[in-house]
Design goal:
Layout: H1 2-19, H2 25-38, H3 43-46, H4 49-60, H5 74-96, E1 101-102, E2 111-117, E3 121-130, H6 134-143, E4 155-164, E5 168-175, E6 186-197, E7 200-207, E8 220-221, E9 223-234, E10 237-250, H7 257-280
Parallel strand pairs: 6-8
Antiparallel strand pairs: 1-2, 2-3, 3-10, 4-5, 5-6, 6-7, 7-9, 9-10
Helix pairs in contact: 4-5
């Protein structure tokens, strides 16, 4: 009797709510998905957690066939939150840490320095000015991410596993095997997030453990604690870009800290060298 009464009450309540014009579930879903697409990097701080949970449950049941992005599930929101937190941490490092120590690298095209950050260890900062606009660099380093191994020999594969809105990606990167490499082959599962502050574009990355993917054979699964590339128009010359790259990694395995502290800044310098060569050989519209 009690069970039947409960079902009856729930049915009446559901039927009553369904008729109210202000409580259309489909309209709520569309509005929430619109918020996700229009400004995903602001979601964690603007939308309460209980609304985020509702978004995850309701929109997953009603996918939009016209948009080739993942549904706004709770996992998607977790990716966005990870990316936003990494961005805030990078901004904090840039604002608070002023005692940077110069690092020696083979290529003088970029200047590389480092500082110790609690919770991250050694953070390396590379800086260079490139003679291309921010928009072009942004396309190469975010929109055309999977093509990066074509010009960066340090990588053998970059694959986008998932797109969350317009500003967040989940990626799998595999480093290239090379003779004489002190570190050996590594692979990474990362959240990559795009943010904007005034005229600057921020491309941030950090390891995620949410996406299950077995390690590549012969690879060690390493972790990117923090990677943040800041692209800013050069003052007085918007056709050039000032690039700043913060990097902190845990390469795993039995590698002495002294080796890691020598390898990472050189990797940054090599990346910038290959990026410069690629940009020089590329014709842009």
């Amino acid at each position: 009797m009690l069970q039947a009464t409960t079902k009856l009450c729930c049915g009446i309540a559901h039927d009553h709510l369904r008729r109210l014009p202000g409580l259309k579930i489909t309209a709520m879903q569309k509005d929430m998905r619109g918020l996700l697409v229009r400004g995903s990097h602001r979601l964690p701080s603007k939308i309460p957690h209980y609304i985020q949970r509702l978004m995850g449950k309701e929109t997953a049941a009603c996918p939009d066939p016209d948009r080739a992005i993942s549904s706004s599930s709770s996992v998607d929101l977790s990716y966005i939150t990870q990316g936003e937190r990494a961005l805030q941490r990078a901004l904090s490092i840039l604002q608070q840490h002023t005692s940077w120590q110069a690092e020696t690298v083979l290529d003088t095209r970029a200047t590389v320095s480092s500082t110790a950050v609690p919770g991250l260890g050694r953070v390396f900062r590379a800086e260079v000015v490139l003679a291309v606009p921010v928009a072009w660099l942004h396309q190469e380093l975010f929109e055309r991410l999977e093509q990066m191994p074509q010009w960066n020999p340090a990588l053998s594969q970059v694959k986008v596993l998932q797109r969350v809105g317009r500003d967040t990606l989940v990626t799998h990167e595999v480093t290239a095997a090379s003779l004489g490499n002190l570190v050996g082959q590594r692979d990474f599962i990362s959240v990559r997030h795009r943010g904007r502050r005034e005229t600057a574009v921020y491309l941030v990355g950090t390891t995620t453990h949410i996406e299950p993917l077995p390690s590549q054979e012969g690879c060690i699964r390493a972790e990117s604690r923090l990677s943040c590339i800041i692209l800013q128009p050069l003052a007085g010359d918007p056709g050039c870009t000032h690039l700043t790259w913060l990097l902190s990694m845990d390469l795993k395995g039995w590698i002495p800290a002294a080796v890691i502290n020598r390898v990472l800044p050189q990797c940054q310098a090599d990346f910038i060298k290959h990026l410069h060569q690629h940009l020089s050989a590329t014709t842009y519209p």
